[in-house]
Amino acid sequence: MKIQSFEIGDFVEDQEYSFDEIITEKMIDDFVSVSGDCSPIHTSDEFAKSKGFQGRIVHGAFLASLLSQLVGVHFPGENAMLVSMNNKFTDKCYINDKITVGCHVDQISTGTKTMVLKAYVKKTNSELILVKSKIIVLFTNA
Q1: Burial, 70: exposed, middle or buried (Cβ in 10 Å; 0-12, 13-18, 19+)?
Q2: Helical H runs in 39-87?
Q3: Which of 1, 19, 20, 26 is the most buried (most CB within 10 A)?
Q4: Residue 48: how many CB atoms within 10 A of its CB?
């Protein structure tokens, strides 16, 4: 995976970026192993179905980690650090869902070397938003 190397001057307000991802069982199993969150709602199809869901529910924290990937790898990349993230989880995500992780630049401050992103995770080709987020990014090279 190529890590981008943008600087604060490369951005303008309302600029947008997104990438797509298919959530795999391996991704979620690995996340369970790393996070220690082995709640059966995330690890057992049978348990999740018994609670009225379609199957295992993807962790909200996993979806938030994709927002971290957005900042640290893609937009803006290596010259920035995520300093705050305010997430609202608005719907469920399941294994094999195709999602879009994206954002638009809401504010830029060259004085404080920060940028505010309005970010989201949604079902691809849908208006179904799974996560809404406000992210503050600090540029480390400006």
Answers
A1: buried
A2: 40-43, 45-50, 60-69
A3: 19
A4: 20
Distances (CA, A) of 69 to 46, 48, 133: 31, 28, 14
Question: Strand pairing partners for 116?
Answer: 107, 136
Beta strands in the chain (DSSP E): 16-22, 80-89, 98-109, 114-123, 129-139
pLDDT of residue 5 exceeding 80 = yes
pLDDT of residue 141: 80
Q: Which domains does the chain have, with CATH numbers?
A: 8-139 (3.10.129.10)
Give the C-alpha separation, 117 to 104, whole Å. Answer: 6
- The 10 Å Cβ neighbour count of residue 119 is 26
Exposure string over 13-35, b if 16+ CB within 10 A, otherwise e: eeeebbeebebeeebbeebbeee
* Tokens coding 58: 């993807």
Tokens, residue 124: 């691809």
3-state secondary structure of 70: helix
Distances from the Cα of 28 to the Cα of 15, 75, 121, angstroms: 31, 24, 16
Instruction: Kindly give the interhelix angle for 60-69 and 25-35, rounded to the nearest 10 degrees.
Output: 100
